Amino acid sequence: MPNRLASVTSPYLLQHADNPVDWWEWGDDAFAEARRRDVPVLLSVGYAACHWCHVMAHESFEDAATAAFMNEHFVCVKVDREERPDVDAVYMAATQAMTGSGGWPMTVVTTPDGRPFFCGTYFPPRRVQHMASFPEVLAAVAAAWTTRREEVLSSAGTIADALGQRPVPGGDGPTGGDLVDERVVARALGALSATFDERDGGFGGAPKFPPSMVLEWLLRHHARTGDADALAMTRATLDAMARGGMYDQLAGGFARYSVDATWTVPHFEKMLYDNALLLRVYLHAWRLTGDPLARRVVEETADWLLADLRTPERGFASALDADSEGREGAFYAWTPGQLRDVLGDDDGTWAADVLAVTGEGTFEHGASVLQRRRDPDDDARFAAVRDRLRDAREARVRPARDDKVVSAWNGLAVAALAEAGALLDRPDWLDAARRCATLLADLHTRTDAGGGDRLVRTSRDGVAGNAPGVLEDYADVAEGYLALAAATGEHAWTARAQRLLTTVLAHFRDDDGSLFDTADDETDPVLGALRRPQDPTDGPTPAGPPAAAAALVTLGALTGDLALREAALAALRDPLRLAARYPRATGWALATAEALLDGPREVAVVGPSGDPAAAALHRAALASPAPGLVVAVGDPADLGDEAPTLLRDRPLVDGRAAAYACRGFVCERPTTDPDALARQLRT
């Protein structure tokens, strides 16, 4: 019989709707029930594409005896970390502090008011060496609550007090207003370079995650300074990721991470956020270098996004699972025999050589993950082979799709597709970006009592979720709107971004200008009693504060509002203090610093709508790799109220379309020549 999760919108929670565990959704009702029964709350936090979350669910949450004990001794709460990143952040901080590590599934036991006193991750159904079994853990925690209550409450109080202490970012760089400074960038670059893997690309050892934000920073740094080493590290990493097993060589799109240092075997889940960020990075690499491999990855990944992650409402689903048929990677791995079955002996043997499918296998059970370490000697033959293998793969059981639409990740997709569509002349990608942005504007946005725009975190099947948007949602959606406005000249998107960022400054800002991850009037009361979430460091996506700073820099350039630039500088203070010590966790802040150090440059293109000369100037502007370049385009005879200040008082030149390039509050002479504009943006 379904439990109370049967009515929720989260696909992850719905996966547990038929568990014998009497699950509650996160909320006041669950904690009220724990107080009524005088029992602890057991939080289980995960996400739909998490392999070990599925394992623990099958081993423990589907087991009748385990579920019965859980139901008797706890109020059990299931949390989708992607839907409630605020809940995840607070209790992950507790888990890491108490155990020295973290991950998912995350298992936390709290008092009825939400104070944690036990934390862990995955627990097996039976004792494994020195790891306690889940039933043993449950029994010990329940006994402690019953027989050592005062000790438990004292421990919970101590942990809550520690969580409530606001961490002070430490670093050895400049302080105050000097944080956006060449010295900060140089120290961070030196620290990053020391971790670069010269043989295999990437930074550090296994497992290797795609360093999307760091690569964007390095591309911007090279564009600003000409630093050859920064570009070399970027190209080596991009090439290794695209040629290895983390990239889907048949359909495009990247898996979550590589379990090894050589980018050979991935953890097979495919996340929207990774692919949106990497799509944009590869696009910017192609824009800077003209590398055909980077362009191929852009084209294949964008087409894959539209084919496999697009929802009927024209948003983008969160992820594809790693598993199918109960096995991780079953959809993606091949043996030589399977290749020959599909292609015949001649093409099958040739494909095995090109795609690194060996007799021993590079993965499990003698199967291999497809790689493309070298270009094939016959492009037409490879294209035909690839199509036949992709068609054959479609007959396999596909991985499940987590089809919730997350505001932040869709904002990242809007930005990537808008830029790619404009630069590579793909109106279908541009249309997809516009339709996704429209969904975010219409379904994910509401007007609050004060007339401000408020975001929800997620939707599913055209129904908005209840969880409020967090800082990364506002920042990344604003970034998407601004990129879409730059690509299309549709100024309503700039106005929408401005409304979101106005909400950020009104409800997320602390007295010192730093930014919290939750709004002052939408912070969950249980979390607020412990710690209002605030994390300046990047994870798999840009951290909220630098993401907001990046959007504020762009909006400030468009509007001429110095207060927005000042707000961006304040939001960057904490992450940049960490940059010299932790450059891999501050890539987005460093990328935004590059934009500020370069200007950012601003280009206003004016000309009649549909004028080929104006379109040529617009393309020339978008093709510039200048860090954080801000572009606006419009008809000076018909700007409208929503047009940004950057476009105003910019007349045609001798009746012809013109571009006005500015930098550091100084403007170049307007030009009607796209080549001259490109030269202006290179100096």
UniProtKB/TrEMBL annotation:
Domain Spermatogenesis-associated protein 20-like TRX: 3-163
Cleaved signal peptide residues: none
Annotated region described as Disordered, given as residue ranges: 516-546
Highest taxon, organism lineage: Bacteria
Low complexity: compositionally biased ranges: 536-546
Residues passing through the membrane, by range: none
Classification via CDD domains: SSP411
Listed InterPro entries: 6-hairpin_glycosidase_sf, 6hp_glycosidase-like_sf, Ssp411, Ssp411-like_TRX, Thioredoxin-like_sf
Pfam family, one: Thioredox_DsbH
PANTHER family documented for this protein: SPERMATOGENESIS-ASSOCIATED PROTEIN 20
Descriptive protein name: Thioredoxin domain-containing protein
